[in-house]
Amino acid sequence: MRIRDALHEGAAAGVDRLDAHLLLGHLLRQPRAWLLAHDEDELSAEVTTDWRGRLARRAAGEPLAYVLGEWSFRGMTLTVSPAVLVPRPETEVLVDWALECLAAAPSGDVVDLGTGSGAIALALAQAQPHAQVLATDTDARALAVAQANAAKLGLPLRFAQGDWWGAAQ
Question: First vs last Cα of the chain: how many Å apart?
Fold first, then answer.
């Protein structure tokens, strides 16, 4: 199967063109412009199988971030799964506000309640390396995603499982 054929499959399945490009580009580890310039290139059998499986998931309505298994937030590529919410662009505004508050805070301590993927805690730790950041969540699966993201990014966070403030004590 050629790249062009795969993208036609995506359209036939009802998947948005941009989503199809992002999905296939992710599988091939190539940017969207490369796909357009190489639309006659053949896909390997392995990539074709993976493409069709992921295309079916997206066509069924699964969020693109979950199909990809990752999502970008403030320049960080974070692992995501159905155990966590997908980091949203408007959450970056919250991080900006938190960074303003953190600049004026004497202790530099931060607690991220319900951390999910760890996006907020990780963004704060990345921007303010002096800050002591504790990320909490009630869900062990979500906490595992956040811990994996912190390890992948090499950011030193502390983690606790529990219900809101109870985990932070």
Answer: 56
